[in-house]
Write a structure and sequence with these properties.
The complex is a heterodimer of chains A (about 110) and B (about 290). By secondary structure, chain A is α+β, with helices and mostly antiparallel strands. Chain A has 4 helices and 3 strands. In chain A, a hairpin with a 5-residue loop joins strand 2 and strand 3. Classes of the chains: A alpha+beta (about 110), B mainly alpha (about 290).
């Protein structure tokens, strides 16, 4: 199943914020996590993720720092900020309403 | 024979050509590519195939550059401390302009000397603007935390200030030399204010070189704070307590008390710069 570009774009921020709510992470791990959770249905073009992360950071929802991983390689890690938690709670409510409405319409 | 490091270098050059102002993003994308290649190699993929698959999955340089192109070009003007400092800088420049023009409009008006004083002063004030940003950054970093974007913005603003300071100081020195040739017969007399102006210009050059080669946030903070010490000492150090002619051969002498006071005033900020980011942040109970 191909998910449209618009839906992919709209869901990127809540997906990222939701994963970061569980703790800090980096770009590659975020993509892997989304792939794993969606069982491969949500397939981001990897390069698309980073501008989204950059935008979320500029909006002060997340923050980043470089850290040396166990294998000695430096990676840029992202953490959720207080404003990000608030926005995530709002988005979660919005997606819940959309999901509820569609579920009623489709009788699922 | 396939060489992964060579391919990465080639890819990095290609990205740098498309996104010259986003070096940090390119480093992050490179880190991603390395992770992706490493993961693919676990499933017995040949290095060349793993590399090609990773690059394809990441997106072509043109596609990535187009995605980044949708972001605002530079964060600095949306960073409010930069706006405050710029506003203060422009205000002080306006004040200086009116002061110098008043000095230059008397019966013994000397536009060349006025331009020398004005431009050199602009060059020095630019160093203070960089220091003001560094002082704000030190406080913000210690009390609120810090992110990579702020490091980049601090670095960019310090580089701009150093470049502007270097240009203005050099022009000011040249104008002063021309004025000295016309009125005193020689371009350079090696007086203390002349040497200090030269030292400040050299300092700006040093800041530019350091920031071009290093990316550490502490270095950015340290150079910003040190700019305050260097410029203030160079500017106020040669001014004597008693009124004597600034460029006179018998004076002035360097007033060591002023540099000492300046250096001491910067010490608390230097200490804060070495604390981990967010160390003094007030933690709210969850």
């Amino acid at each position: 199943m191909d998910i449209t570009k618009d839906l992919m774009g709209a869901s990127a921020a809540p997906l990222i914020l939701s994963i970061l709510r569980g703790g800090e992470s980096y770009g590659y791990a975020l993509i892997q996590r989304v792939r794993e959770l969606s069982k491969g249905e949500i397939e981001w073009t990897d390069g698309m993720l980073y501008p989204v992360l950059h935008r979320l950071e500029e909006q002060d929802l997340i923050q980043s720092h470089w850290k040396t991983a166990e294998n000695g390689r430096r990676r840029k890690y992202y953490t959720l900020k207080a404003a990000g938690r608030k926005v995530l709670a709002e988005q979660r409510e919005q997606w819940r309403v959309v999901n509820l409405t569609l579920s009623q319409l489709w009788g699922t | 024979m396939f060489d992964l490091e060579q391919e990465i270098r080639r890819w990095r050059r290609s990205m740098s050509a498309r996104m010259p102002l986003r070096r940090d993003s390119i480093r992050e994308l490179e880190s991603h590519l390395r992770d992706s290649v490493q993961e693919r190699l676990k499933t017995e993929s040949a290095p060349e195939a793993a590399w090609r698959a990773a690059v394809a999955q990441l997106g072509t340089p043109d596609v990535i550059a187009a995605e980044y192109g949708k972001l605002p070009p530079c964060a600095i003007w949306r960073w409010w401390p930069a706006k405050v400092v710029l506003f203060g800088y422009l205000l002080s420049c306006l004040g200086l302009c009116s002061l110098v023009f008043r000095m230059a409009s008397g019966p013994k008006a000397d536009p060349l000397l006025a331009a020398h004083v004005l431009i050199l002063t602009f060059g020095y004030v630019t160093g203070f603007a960089a220091s003001a940003i560094a002082i704000w950054s030190v406080l913000s970093r210690a009390f609120q935390g810090w992110s990579q974007i702020e490091t980049d913005v601090l670095r960019t603003s310090t580089r701009w200030a150093a470049a502007a300071g270097l240009g203005l100081t050099v022009i000011g020195i040249v104008l002063g030399a021309v004025w000295a040739r016309l009125h005193w017969g020689g371009y350079w007399y090696g007086t203390l204010p002349e040497l200090c102006a030269l030292a400040i210009a050299a300092w700006y050059g040093f800041v530019l070189i350091m920031l071009a080669n290093h990316r550490s946030e502490r270095l950015g903070l340290g150079l910003g704070l040190a700019s305050y010490v260097v410029v203030a000492c160079g500017w106020f150090g040669p001014i004597p307590a008693k009124q004597v002619i600034l460029h006179a051969s018998h004076g002035p002498h360097f007033a060591f008390g002023i540099p000492m006071l300046i250096a001491i005033s910067v010490l608390p900020f230097l200490v804060l710069a070495f604390l981990p980011a967010g160390q003094l942040k007030v933690r709210k109970a969850e």
